[in-house]
Amino acid sequence: MPTSPQDSITINDTPYNLQELETLAWKKLVNGSVKKKNGFRTMCVGTINENNTAALRIVVNRKVDEVNKTVYFHTDNRSRKCYDLQKDNRISLLFYDARQRVQIVVKAHAALHTNDALSNDRWKATSPQARLGYMTLEPPNTKSNHPTLGYEERFSTLKPTDIESDLFQENFTVVACAVYELEFLYLDFTGNRKANFFYENSVLQDSFWAVP
């Protein structure tokens, strides 16, 4: 049965009903995790800090499990975001691609994986160069009297070896974000369109069109 214009939105000449739009949203998030130049490759992560206010930062979308409705990113477990999530595991993820004119907001519960099978596998898949972010001698955001890399200056020109970087694996954490809500916003000069989706135990429970 063809999609009714009243119950769908058109993106790039293709109509999408609610079910098709949800599938499209997850496809876009998956593409962002595997394509480095995709607009959904990075996301703004929001946590609740010690002052009970929002704390924001940009992280890389490392993996998306469409079946289990989970989004993954990597972080230093000495960072403030880990401290926030240990106190309150609610997390928000904001994706936006200006070229696609699509914004996706995800609300989730975060689980921290350190020194377990998941984090060990992800660490092994990470290049020594990419591990520099976890090789700082002091925790992220530690006050410094001068501009600093945080790690040994020699690594500004030399790549660390596997052995050298493995010494810092204990700082590496994978954050698994189990999604319970997703908002899809399509921006268009003829009028914006929005839809909301709600999940429980990775299963879609409700969805509806919304005023943008």
From TrEMBL:
Entry superkingdom: Bacteria
Boundaries of every Pyridoxamine 5'-phosphate oxidase Alr4036 family FMN-binding domain copy: 25-112
Signal peptide, first to last residue: none
Pfam families cross-referenced by the UniProt entry: Pyridox_oxase_2
Protein name: Pyridoxamine 5'-phosphate oxidase family protein
InterPro entries: Pyridox_Oxase_Alr4036_FMN-bd, Split_barrel_FMN-bd
